[in-house]
Amino acid sequence: MNIAIIGTGYVGLVSGVCFSEMGINVECIDIDTEKIASLQAGEIPIYEPGLDSLLERNQRAGRLHFTTSIAEGIAHAEVIFIAVGTPSRSDGGVELCYVEEVARQIGRNLDHYAVVATKSTVPVGTAKHIHNIIASEIAANNRTVEFDIVSNPEFLKEGAAIKDFMSPDRVVVGVENERARRIMARLYKPFMFISDRIIYMDIASAELMKYAANAMLATRISFMNEIANLCDKVGANIDSVRKGIGTDVRIGSKFLYAGCGYGGSCFPKDVRALAETGRNAGCTMDVIEAVNRVNIRQKSIIVERLKEHFGSLESLNIAIWGLSFKPETDDMREAPSLVVIEELHSAGAHIKAFDPEAMETCRRMVSCEMEYATDMYDAVVDADALILLTEWKQFRMPSWQILRRSMRGNVIMDGRNIYDRSEIEEHGFIYKAIGK
Hints:
Layout: E1 2-6, H1 10-21, E2 25-29, H2 33-40, H3 51-60, E3 64-67, H4 70-73, E4 79-82, H5 97-109, E5 114-118, H6 126-140, E6 147-151, H7 161-166, E7 171-174, H8 178-188, E8 198-201, H9 203-234, H10 238-246, H11 267-280, H12 286-298, H13 301-310, E9 317-321, H14 336-346, E10 350-354, H15 359-365, E11 371-372, H16 376-379, E12 385-388, H17 400-406, E13 411-414, H18 421-426, E14 430-432
Helix pairs in contact: 1-3, 5-6, 9-11, 9-12, 11-12
């Protein structure tokens, strides 16, 4: 089977590599010539555990190809995936210019029947919009070419994307005719040998379902962050509250961890987009609007707590462990660290940070003056306080003795609630967390 994936960002690249691993011939297409040249040379522009070895193996086997030409890439494709970026607009809505341009290019170059599948996260109604663009381009060139549109949203967790793709808990396909449904079923059959987990639905429902899923997870996080903040006011412990409610089978234990807010390429953008979809439809999304407000506020709580303790942060040395929005990725899009760094800098603090993978990302994204450490213990030398922002495994069991000898002060600000208060206080530290 031959497929094409337009867009070699996180979703497109992981999807292309994983499809090729199942024996499918994949053409990955991107207009970024430097990126394509790097991928052709086996160099991956993102950090995702295990992706480099899969890419190398499938390139060597001749199943995975990279090109800048849409005409060449879709020439033999039975399924053409659109996997380009859909960034937020200033009003919270979704910018569709990249999706629209891809649709135009498909319409100008398609000369055989194919299924065009949207993997980019797009608002309800986008599939119809794409269909109209492609059909208009075909008609403008006096051609007759049949095609179908389907919605096939992705559910990849950064840091575990390969496992999520190869062993999905569900594959959602929004489809409205049998011919396209059969092709999508054949495409995903290698992933369904144990059980068929494909969920077919209408296209509008598939488009909305992706936003609803991410918004639900974001809602759980923001809810627990509000409860954690209340715990701090009334003397309760968020860990105990979490365990108590998580054992209720109607609630479950996942995504109940309080902290300094969520980030990444999906949750913030998708929550805003869902709220904007509601406004456009005349249906105010009160809960979703509140989820976004809570998360914005939560990213400032770290610096607020430090100011409560120190009074002024002027000229203090602050160490940061973790810059990426979550472990096992170098992605800092909308990460809490960006807010913390900006607020520390504005308060006059000196910042020294370490992250196992996101240091170069931070250098590209952060313009304010800060220092980058060579390792986690170098970051804390002469520090007045240490902030944990990302729960990388190597941060979970640090040597408190080394920290006590290296730090000038003794404040540990745990933004992810991973440490034990009694253990830290035994070593002479002042422990601050969220809801504990």
